[in-house]
Specification:
globular, BirA Bifunctional Protein, domain 2, 5-stranded mixed β-sheet, 4 domains, alpha+beta, 36% helix, 649 residues, 35 strands, RNA-binding, Ubiquitin-like (UB roll), 8-stranded mixed β-sheet, 21 helices, Threonyl-tRNA Synthetase, Chain A, domain 2
Length: 649
RNA sequence: GCCGGGGUAGCUCAGGGGUAGAGCGCAUCCUUGGUAAGGAUGAGGUCACGAGUUCAAUUCUCGUCCUCGGCUCCA
């Protein structure tokens, strides 16, 4: 008998060799139906693998990452089986799971091609194969036998993968007529897979290297219940509706022009207003935290980037230098603001008492991105960072980190981002040589970040080896209204640039010391942040931020003057109001302005004009009754104040 | 950059080897209205660009440009 410890710490005894599925059955029939894989002492295994020693286990269902992983991994094999039967001679690359679903890279026989139209046929075949309830059989195999087997099949990709594996660790999984090199784990059989949607087909280089052959990658997602697939489809529809490129066009926030160039956004009046609100907000917050705004040029002498090291590292992949005709000077479009900020710091000597110096700038930078990488506002060639550089003493690092975290929280609160995670990126413990700066400083900086996060009660994950060569960092990821994750703000310690720019301050000992630099951008870039915000809110921005807060709708042209009077009145209270004086009926004006996502509509007619009132309509909620102009202005400003309570505290 | 879908009116899209289509938007006029679409009339297109095949190309072929989905996530 062996002892099995369950997640609730209860211990049960089973025969040696008991399997996950048997344990599940012994607990409940429901669990036996729902369980997809088993975690045994931190290793995820097939439900059919015998357990031969005492162990702590967890039974993974659809609700867990590990459960989904086994499910989608098996689905990838099922797809491969379908493709193998429909396109004999296909060679298979890799077929992993991803955040939402799975893919398989395949090399189709000469002259064969899979397009979107073929996906439905493959789905049907997969369902047919799934219903056969074929068992996933696991087999240990020697490296030699594996190589022979895939050489016979002519599958060069699997051969390459096997040749890199260690003998004794190689396993095969077989279901139906299809056998694949695989580490597992898998579902007990194919019948678990009830609903399948193949989502797209794309080219992908073997091993992501453009020197290699391009394979066909087929993406799909699958579910244990038809209902889940329906929910997934609804979610995808919603995501499509919220696409910032679509909403950006509809709401006239920004546009792209072929004549200006790819990846170079043009901000239209409403989008510019959105950015202006965000910038004003952040500037106010930063002012409170002791930041000073500076302004630097869009280009800089090549030498500046040679000093910073950016030229050596990115020069070839950047926009090329700009030359002056007569004098032969060489400039680069600014890819980073930090070198300029270092020069700003260098203007005079500093006492240790003056630090930290915090220089902030909404600095526009230009970076070359391959044309195929460009995507709406999230991947562009010119963008504005809400950048700042903090020059501080090593002993101030922790305090400064905490202050930046405070700023980020104020932003999250004002914009209603409720779920976030923070990733701490530290050195690779096995390879300290590749990092610049002294051990002592790194140790200090790393513990400063970790402690700052702890003291602020942050939800963190720590990744070793993810630090930049010049310093550790803290990145913030938020979850939007649809549960999608986005990387936003970042805080990075930098030992490199102060060194390269020879930055100094005079310490209490009257000697020169090297300051530490912190790069930080709570939004990341204005472009990307606006894109996330659009998709998070579906274009219904919080009142304080939205470009047009109020539209006044006169019942007929007779009341246009009064409407204008109300508009002027509200504008004096810094409320963004305009009049819709089109020659249309009131129902029409309401509909059009609701669709434009205007938070408040004020209807004014004979009654209102006589009494000096407005009839208030809140977006999505309808008629809210009548108020005086004065009451409404106060009411609206109170709402804004409430949304920005963190800022006014 | 590479692979694969696209590019038809301002927007969303239908069509198809032989006078170019719809809805919305826009303009003019009528209507002056009370909480999600009032009516009439009209303007608007080198069917992305360039070449080729053809009696004839927006449609077929090739090239260019732009755009969309991918190209990191351990077999």
């Amino acid at each position: 008998m062996i002892k099995i410890t369950l997640p609730d710490n209860s211990v049960r005894e089973y025969e040696n060799g008991v399997t996950g599925i048997e344990i599940a059955k012994s607990i409940s029939n429901r669990l036996a139906k729902d369980v997809l894989s088993i975690t045994v002492n931190d290793e995820v295994l097939d439900l059919t693998r015998p357990i031969v020693e005492d162990a702590s286990i967890n039974l993974n269902t659809w609700d867990s990452e590990d459960g989904k992983h086994a499910f989608w991994h098996s689905s990838a094999h099922l797809m491969a089986e379908a493709i193998d039967s429909m396109y004999p001679g296909t060679k298979f690359g890799i077929g992993p799971t991803i955040d939402l679903g799975f893919y398989y890279d395949v090399d189709l026989p000469e002259g064969k091609q899979i397009t979107e139209k073929d996906l439905v046929k493959i789905e049907k075949k997969m369902i047919e194969l799934a219903r056969q309830k074929n068992v996933f059989e696991r087999e240990d195999i020697t490296k030699e036998a594996a190589l022979t087997m895939f050489t016979e099949k002519g599958d060069v990709y699997k051969q390459e993968l096997i040749s890199e594996l260690e003998d004794g660790t190689i396993t095969l999984y077989k279901q139906g007529n299809f056998t694949d090199l695989c580490r597992g784990p898998h579902l007990p059989n194919t019948s678990y897979i009830k609903a399948i949607k193949l989502t797209s087909v794309a080219g992908a280089y073997w091993r992501g290297d453009e020197k290699n052959k391009m394979l066909t990658r087929i993406y799909g997602v699958s579910f244990p219940k038809q209902k889940f697939l329906e929910e997934y489809k609804v979610m995808m529809e919603e995501a499509k509706k919220r696409d910032h490129r679509k909403i950006g066009k509809e709401m006239e926030l920004f546009t792209f022009s072929q004549s200006v160039g790819q990846g170079l956004p043009i901000w239209l009046p409403k989008g510019a207003m959105l950015r202006e609100q965000l910038e004003t907000f952040l500037k106010k917050v930063q002012k409170r935290f002791g930041y000073q705004q500076i302004i630097t040029p869009h280009i800089g002498d090549v030498q500046l980037y040679k000093t910073s090291g950016h030229y050596q590292k990115y020069g070839e992949d950047s926009f090329q230098t700009i030359n002056t005709p007569a004098e032969g000077e060489e400039f680069m479009l600014k890819p980073m603001n930090c070198p300029h900020h270092c020069e700003a710091f260098r203007t005079r000597p500093y006492s240790y008492k003056e630090l930290p110096i915090r220089y902030a700038e909404f600095g526009t930078v230009y970076r070359y991105e391959q044309s195929g990488e460009l995507h709406g506002l999230t991947r562009v060639r010119g963008f504005t960072q809400d950048d700042a550089h903090i020059f501080c003493r090593p002993d101030q690092l922790k305090e400064e980190f905490k202050k930046v975290i405070d700023i980020i929280f104020i932003i999250f609160k004002a914009l209603d981002f409720k779920e976030y995670t923070a990733q701490i990126s530290l050195r690779d413990p096995n390879n300290h040589e590749k990092y610049i700066g002294s051990q002592e400083n790194w140790d200090k900086a790393e513990s400063a970040i970790v402690e700052a996060c702890e003291e602020k009660g942050l939800n963190t994950i720590t990744e070793l080896g993810e630090a930049a060569f010049y310093g550790p960092k803290l990145d913030f990821m938020i979850k939007d209204a649809l549960g999608r994750k986005w990387q936003l703000g970042t805080i990075q310690v930098d030992y490199n640039l102060p060194e390269r720019f020879n930055l100094e301050y005079i310490g209490a000992d009257d000697k020169k010391h090297r300051p530490v630099m912190i790069h930080r951008a709570p939004f990341g870039s204005m472009e990307r942040f606006c894109a996330v915000l659009i998709e998070h809110t579906a274009g219904k921005f919080p009142l304080w931020l939205t470009p047009e807060q109020v539209v006044i709708l006169p019942i007929s042209e007779k009341y246009n003057d009064y409407a204008q009077n109300v508009s002027n009145y509200l504008n004096n209270y810094d409320i963004r109001a305009i009049v819709d004086d089109r020659n249309e009926k009131i129902g029409r004006k309401i509909r059009d302005n609701e669709l434009k996502r205007i938070p408040y509509l004020l209807i004014v007619g004979e009654k209102e004009a006589e009494e000096g009132t407005v009839s208030v309509r809140r977006q999505g909620e309808g008629d809210k009754g009548t108020m005086s102009k004065d009451e409404f202005a106060k009411f609206l400003n109170d709402e804004v104040r409430e949304q920005l309570s963190e800022l006014y505290n």
